[in-house]
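ugh finaly. both done.
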Amino acid sequence: MSPLSTRLSLAAAAVARGAILALFAIFCLLIGLGCLTAAAWIAIAAEMGHLMAALVIGGVWMLLGALFLIALTRRPRPVAPPVAEPEALGPPAPVAGGTAAAIAMAFAQGLGAGLSTRRRL
């Protein structure tokens, strides 16, 4: 066998082992969930009656199901494209005038950009 097929078979065995362990974990969690639901039923039924126990436990399961459905329908936020490093852009362009004039011009540009953004919203 070639080294590539050996690595692929080892990777497939690791994935299969992980899948089997995940299935056993899910099975154990479901058994535990069933026992906890039965314990909650017994405790609520003893205190408030069978009808209230059914309402409470059914409501909790409906709420959990709705939350999971909402989590499934949420779309991930788009990732912004990477921004170039400042060194890659080169040095800033020289501004005509002194330092105070450059600061005033930058302030005016920023103010104009902010106001135009606010108008679009």
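ok and the 2nd:
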Amino acid sequence: MACANTVAALQRDFIHFDSSISGLNGCVYASGATGNIVTEDIVHGFEEMAVFNGVELAQIIAFAKEVQRILDKTNNNGSCMFGTQP
């Protein structure tokens, strides 16, 4: 749902989006919530839609993997699991 909401907002000229590296973090109001939209996935989606975002997808994926390694957490978001190709 977060991806669909992001695209809908983009279509209405929103340009700022809240996301989280590797989907880490959560919501203090929703127990068990996994966090915001995954940064790597939104960047990948924007690239697929030819939306310039100024973020280098390969670098953000590498950074997300490093964060996962440091925190000893694995998140199965699409971009980190499958790389930059859908």
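summary for the 2nd one i guess: The CA atoms of residues 41 and 78 lie 7 Å apart.
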